[in-house]
């Protein structure tokens, strides 16, 4: 399950970090610090999300 979670994390981490940056830019935060914080927050949220997604895929695959 760990290889699957890592593969999902690669895609999900970039997606959530980018989405968080778009939200920060939309809210008017245009300096580096809020953008870095938003990207890091999205990246950190992707860790448990990828683990849950990998678990659900493995459970669905087993039956």
From the structure above, extract its key features.
single chain; 63 residues; mainly alpha; 2 helices; 89% helix; 0% strand; elongated; transmembrane; transmembrane helix; membrane
Task: Describe, in plain words, how this protein is organized in 3D.
With 63 residues, the protein is mainly alpha-helical. It has one domain (2-57). 89% of the residues lie in helices and 0% in strands. It is built from two helices and no strands. α1 runs antiparallel to α2. It is elongated and about 45 Å long. The mean pLDDT is 95.
Helix fraction, binned, reads: over 70%
Beta content comes to under 5%
Report Rg: 14 Å
The protein's oligomeric status is single chain
Largest sheet: none
* Continuous helix count: 2
> Which series of helices and strands comes N to C?
HH
Compact description:
Keywords: Membrane, Transmembrane, Transmembrane helix. By secondary structure, the protein is mostly helical.
Q: How do the strands and helices of this protein lay out in sequence?
A:
Elements: H1 2-26, H2 32-62
Helix pairs in contact: 1-2
């Amino acid at each position: 399950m760990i290889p699957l979670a890592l593969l999902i994390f690669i895609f999900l981490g970039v997606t959530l970090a980018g989405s968080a940056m778009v939200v920060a830019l939309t809210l008017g935060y245009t300096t580096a610090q809020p953008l870095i914080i938003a990207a890091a927050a999205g990246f950190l949220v992707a860790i448990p999300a990828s683990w849950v997604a990998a678990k659900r895929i493995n459970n669905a695959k087993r039956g």
